[in-house]
Amino acid sequence: MKLSEVKQLLPTLDNVAFQLEDGTFVPEHFHVTEVGVTTKHFIDCGGIIRSEEAVNFQLWNAEDYEHRLKPAKLLRIISLSEDKLDIKDAEVEVEYQSNTIGRYDLSFNGSHFVLKSKTTACLAQDACGNFKEISVAASSCCTPGGNC
What is the pTM of this model? Predict the structure, then answer.
């Protein structure tokens, strides 16, 4: 789910609620402690350099049991983040702690947001295992066809 979709949904909600895929809800007194951008710059197993960018929400369970994040407040936090951090309309990824910090994709089921489990995948299926050395800078001793 993209940030623009979250922003469109929030004004239609009375409350902000997040649910894990197993049906467990994030406690109502959660805080959104961070809204930001995460960038992942990496090389896949086929030697292809890739970059991914996501909008990141971090959820945290506080001891503040009276706290309830309202949709308008989350919209203000998002707006401030867009302004100060130059956040673009990207997919939203949510960090939430259970046994360890989990990273989740986000969807909406008609009444609340759902934290969707992320999975790993080979991005270079056609070249998997054929990793080639990547030259960062050519040396002056390299010659055309010299396989540097």
Answer: 0.81
